[in-house]
Amino acid sequence: MGIKDRLLGRKEPAEVEDYAEIDLAAAEADSFGEPALYVRIASISDLKESQTIKNEIYDGNIVIVDISKLRMDKINCERLLKDLKQVASDIKGDIVGLGDQQYVIITPHRVRISRERIGGGGRY
Fold it and tell me: Cα 38 to the chain's mean position, in Å?
């Protein structure tokens, strides 16, 4: 492609070979290095699945847990919340319920969750 084509644009449609797939994950890893932590999303429907969530928290990641499926079983839901509160306490992290207690967010040490809403006023 010549300078004229670059300035004025092409007249013929671009060919498939003119485009290249970019691996964004590899590009980000190359330019920024390994991330300090991840924000992980989890959905839990059985108490047996809680160990995987706890492992992510102990690894220093932020975990957002959808507990809406487990809320049908009040006893197991309360047990899960007690376990997650204990994990947050163990690592000196933070935990908060969100969205009428359908979601729980747990953060590692040195990450706090603000209870103030940015828009709409009020608290969580």
Answer: 7
